[in-house]
Design a protein that fits this description.
The protein is of the alpha+beta class and 235 residues long. Helix content is 40%, strand content 25%. A hairpin with a 2-residue loop joins β12 (215-218) and β13 (221-224).
C-alpha cells in the first residue's frame, strides 16, 4: 500500500530550483502555473507508487529522493529498470486519453517527495500547454534508448562489461561527485539485478577492480574513482 502525505507547496525552493525536461521550453509563469496545479506528496522509502498492470490516475514529477522503474515477470522475478532522480517523471500512462494498465511499476528507493497531477488536471494542462506533450515524447524516447542499450548489453556483452556499464551509467545518473570520484548509493544485489549477473560475480569483479584502484567498495556504497579507467579495465 502506498503511504503518502501532503508535504510542501509546489512553489517551494525544492521545486523552484528543479531542473526537469518535463517543463523545458516553458516560460517561468507557465512553469509556475503547471507546478501549482499539482498536489505535493511524500512517499516513504520502498513504497510502490505505480503498480504494474494497473491503471494509474496520477502523473508524478520527482522533486526529492530517488526511485526506479521495475518489472515483475510471469514467474515472479523482479527486474530493476532505469533509476529516477529529481526532475524525472513517472506514471505517464495516466496522461493518455484512454486509460491503459502500466507495463511496469515504480517504487521509491529513499524517502521521496513528488508532485502529482490527476488525469483530468494533466489533460487540461496539455491542452493549454502543448509543449508538455512534446517534452513527454522526448522523455519517452530517452527511456526507449535506455531499454535498447540495456537489451544490447545483455545480449552482446560479457558480464564484466555489463557490470562496468551499469556502474558508469549510475555514476552519470545518481552518482554524487565527491573527492576522489563518484559515490554510488547502491548494493551488490542491486548491481546484480541491473547487470543480470550473480552476486558472486559482482563481489568478484568489484574486489578485482578495487585491487586495481578503480573502485572502493564499502557497505551499501561504491566509490567509482574513474569511469574512463573502469571502461578500459572492463574491455
Amino acid at each position: 500500500m502506498n503511504r503518502s502525505t501532503k508535504t510542501i507547496s509546489p512553489t517551494s525552493t525544492a521545486c523552484s530550483d528543479l531542473r526537469s525536461r518535463f517543463v523545458e521550453g516553458l516560460s517561468p509563469s507557465e512553469r509556475e502555473s503547471i507546478l501549482n496545479a499539482a498536489t505535493p506528496r511524500r512517499f516513504h522509502a520502498k513504497s510502490v507508487v505505480v503498480d504494474q498492470g494497473r491503471v494509474g490516475n496520477h502523473l508524478f514529477l520527482l522533486t526529492i529522493g530517488r526511485a526506479r522503474h521495475f518489472f515483475i515477470t510471469e514467474t515472479g522475478q523482479k527486474i530493476l529498470l532505469n533509476w529516477l532522480v529529481p526532475g524525472d517523471i513517472f506514471g505517464a500512462y495516466a496522461g493518455l486519453v484512454t486509460p491503459v494498465p502500466s507495463l511496469f511499476g515504480a517504487e521509491t528507493v529513499k524517502d521521496c517527495v513528488a508532485l502529482a497531477w490527476d488525469r483530468a488536471t494533466f489533460r487540461g494542462l496539455v491542452a493549454r500547454y502543448p509543449r508538455l506533450l512534446d517534452n513527454g515524447l522526448l522523455i519517452a524516447t530517452s527511456y526507449l534508448t535506455w531499454f535498447l542499450a540495456a537489451h544490447e548489453a545483455l545480449t552482446c556483452h560479457p558480464a564484466r562489461q555489463r557490470l562496468a556499464q551499469v556502474l558508469i551509467s549510475l555514476a552519470k545518473g545518481i552518482g554524487q561527485k565527491v573527492s576522489g570520484g563518484f559515490e554510488l548509493d547502491v548494493t551488490n544485489e542491486e548491481l546484480a539485478y541491473l547487470a543480470n549477473v550473480t552476486l558472486f560475480t559482482v563481489s568478484r569483479l568489484l574486489s578485482q577492480w578495487q585491487r586495481q584502484g578503480v573502485v572502493l567498495k564499502s557497505r551499501g556504497k561504491v566509490l567509482l574513482r574513474s569511469p574512463e579507467r573502469l571502461f578500459v579495465r572492463a574491455a
